[in-house]
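Posting this for the archive.
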Amino acid sequence: MQGSVQGLGWFVRRTSDAAILGKFYRDALGLPVLRHWALPENAGYMLYAGGVTTFEANRGGQIPISDPLQAECIPIFRARDLKAAMADAISASARLIGEDTSTNISTKLFADALGHLFGLRAANDQSTLAPDIEAARAWRAGERGLAGLSPMPDAIQDLGTIRPRVEDPKNLAEFYAEMLGLDIMGEPTSLGASLHLGGTGILELVPGGTRRSPPKDRVDVTDVWILRVHDYVGLKAHFAVNRVQRVNSLEMAGGWLDYYTDPEGHLFGFQERKPPDPKVPNTNLIEDIAARKQWEAS
């Protein structure tokens, strides 16, 4: 792994009604609520998704695509009790689309309350891949969440895999390895490639996507994954030297966030959070404090 990347920090799903979507993932998967907001111009939910990861439902994006062969990016949750997780999702109005075995791993695919796709995949404690080994260790150690927050449900461990559909998995695996320092797991081919996102996270590139022009703004993209990093300035310089297409660059009260596109036009991002400071708003979020402690102890 590249020295400044801690892991998958955020998965943002944009939709027409973020309040409905946030409540769905709270109820269907049991993701603990970190915070939610309802403003005249916006509404959204921030949910905890295990490790150092959050799942955010926010306004924007495109019309949901519930065809697995057309959906650009699918979040797949690691299930410790797949049968129970499926039952919980269906009871909360999720619609089972089918089973995907294109990567030789079974993934149950569902449409959520507004038609966006998500997946459930059983944990594999026999795997020799680094993220699966870390997931097994964390589960055995009883790591179920953050202090001061409701624990993750018994059936779901975390958001384990992000699966973009791309045109050339091999080429993009090499891009992400070079630009972000992500470790490629196995031999990348035109049939698929996997990279370690840090911690228990996997970036799973599958064929079938298409090239597209870079979006004008992040809010135009329905699904985007964002890494939690600790050298934002260095990564920005690295991307600038290599002429990676930048879409947005934001400084917020709690940190710095950039969005870029890969050579095929798929959006991704990285964010560095500011050190905790009682005088600075949004620098004392429990997930950020926990992630920083973990980073400093590693």
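The chain has a mean pLDDT of 95. The CA atoms of residues 124 and 237 lie 38 Å apart.
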